[in-house]
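User: Thanks for the earlier help. One more: Xaa-Pro aminopeptidase. Can you show the sequence and predicted structure together?

Assistant: Of course, both are below.
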Amino acid sequence: MLMQTHEARLAALREELKRRGVNGFIIPISDEHMSEYVGDYAQRLHWLTGFGGSAGFAAVTMNHAAIFVDGRYTVQVRDQVDGQLFDYKSVPADSLGAWLAEVCEGSTRIAYDPWLHTWAWVEALEDKVAPRGITLVPAESNPIDAVWADRPAPSPAAALVHNETDAGRSSADKRAAVADWLVKEGHDAVVIPALDSVAWLLNIRGADVPHTPVALSYVIAHRDGSAELFIAPEKVTPELTRHLGNAVTVRNRDAFEGALGELSGKNVVLDPDFAVVGIAQALRAGGAKFAFKQDPTILAKAIKNPTEQQGHRDAQARDGAAVSRFLRWLEIEASKGGVDELAAAARLQAFREEDAGLRDLSFDTISAAAGHAALPHYKVDEDSNIPIPPGSIYLVDSGGQYPGGTTDITRTVWVGTPDGAGEPTQEMRDRFTRVLKGHIQIDRAVFPQGTNGGQLDVLARQYLWEAGVDYAHGTGHGVGSFLGVHEGPQRIAKPGGGQAGTAQELLAGMILSNEPGYYKAGAFGIRIENLVLTEERQIEGMEGRYLGFETLTFVPIDRKLIDKALLTADEIAWVDAYHARVREVLASRLEGEDLAWMQRETAPL
């Protein structure tokens, strides 16, 4: 019998916990690979609570339940999760440890799935709750899976070969580099559970996670350059077997935990951000020694080789043409008042799909009208969908997956009125221009080797701070090469505050987003996002090595929202030069009215 209500699901989970002799359970949005986006089979939090965001977790005891989300989802969680069943908690102000200490009485056993949490996470929580008599218990199997009768199976899609013409480097070469690192560091093997790291190392891709072209699998890479790939047999094609060659042993994904026990006496590396407790437990039980160090593929993957860099440029040009065509369509149709958020997102996807090179979107499009644009991570659905009002700001954040690269672009535009009388307010133009000025500062930044993203972040915020306003998200994240749209270890964000990656040195070859913003709750939101490539700079008389950014994204920036009086001469020159480059990149990819529109929108300020 299928349970249709969240109340029934919560009751069934409590019965299962009671049967197992534990007093509670913790439910994250996660899979065994600590992926940012997870397949339907791992959407346990959504099944239990109804919450559809990409970050958050819940905790359930016999008498209490709470759902924890950050400021991005304060509104969404109240729309989707029954407040009669779950208390709403906001992180980081509210902590799981404090909540458990408050609701648990006496000696309490709280279960967690060791395949969905990292070692550091468990240790940190244990430190907080153990003094209160609360014991964390690793579950032998996930109790939600025991009561989720119609849980989807993991994707059966075949793994695909990522050609060296797109990868720019052979898997054998990458594995040799990992082997050299293991020898240098004094280790025998590294366990690689991160799906994009597996994909990068072996030059394979897949279709198992929405919008991220990866295959559910693990790798154990050895110091002799060989590797073991653990993947479901139905995913393995003759082409994949030929591609992997003799140095990569293909084993059933179900054999992975047992294989960890075969590393007895070996020195093994685990990445603290991706290796879950279950992996560490299996290694320890088998007699292996392990050390926590960053997976050696992480940094190598972030530094794009020349082939990947050129592939990104091609992907951006394809994508820029599709987005430009969409913006012209939007200008015409939305002013009539007949376009809603879902229809706009669908039309943008259709423009992208006209390019045969498109493989997927790179994330669910953020199609945000009016007050919804003030929610940086808004996700439109049938319930939240609204018409785009003529005489308003519209924000669209979207991207595509192409064999050459992954795109991510945000444009904020003014939707006019049928009579052309509607104009942006002075406040809108002021905020848009201050965001643009910060965007320009990041784009034009020149900095010495050794600079990290946390040191650059203030460049994007300075003009907003002058006006007494700010934005609550990072300024830039790493982007993969036909992989994850969010890729570490680099990012541009305020230092500290849990912003992983802000201390990572920026290196030539890294791709980042440049996306400052401003959000006025309930009214409008602004974000301008391009992707940039970190590259070496030559400066006459320079002492040491210096870096800067090459702009990769070329789509017109809405001049109707720019207050030219707020720009310096240099900034005006930047806008004009950027738009000249847009014309250069897109002219051969557009025709007719689309071409004429692009040329008009990129005229000098």
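User: Great, one quick takeaway?

Assistant: Residues 19 and 197 are 39 Å apart (CA to CA).
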